Task: inverse folding
């Protein structure tokens, strides 16, 4: 077991096409489930922010953990209630989430933890969050 000796978040990277023996000239599509989804989201945001190549043309994120109560912007805190709603969920309840967070030991303020922690201009951050908040209403 790598935890807790490998503190999270670790640096997500995209390997070169030569290493993977694939042609990346048309761009890349990345994705993942659970922790893989979190890594895909963080990698995609960094990749775009740093204007790296090849271009990312798609991101699949299935159940990423991108937010923590500590990093939810003040004006959006009233929308942060799903953890309370699902505290007694059948599969991953509050106790399981607490265990995962303790073992994972993330720095929730790091840009490696969540795209929401990227140093973006306010306008860009509001656009980014509006894509999610707009779907709630």
Result:
């Amino acid at each position: 077991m790598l935890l807790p000796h490998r503190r999270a978040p670790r640096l997500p990277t995209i390997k070169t096409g030569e290493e993977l023996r694939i042609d990346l000239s048309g761009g890349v599509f990345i994705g993942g489930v659970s922790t893989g989804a979190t890594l895909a989201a963080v990698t995609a945001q960094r990749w775009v922010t740093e204007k790296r190549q090849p271009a990312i043309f798609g991101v699949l994120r299935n159940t990423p953990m991108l937010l923590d109560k500590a990093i939810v912007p003040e004006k959006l805190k009233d929308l942060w209630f799903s953890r309370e709603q699902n505290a007694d969920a059948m599969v991953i309840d509050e106790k399981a989430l607490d265990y995962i967070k303790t073992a994972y030991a993330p720095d929730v303020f790091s840009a490696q933890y969540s795209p929401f922690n990227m140093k973006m201009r306010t306008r860009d951050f509001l656009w980014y969050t509006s894509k999610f908040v707009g779907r709630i209403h």
Observations:
- Residues 35-49 form the longest helix (15 residues).
- The domain at 17-136 is CATH 3.40.50.1820 (Rossmann fold).
- The chain has one domain: 17-136.
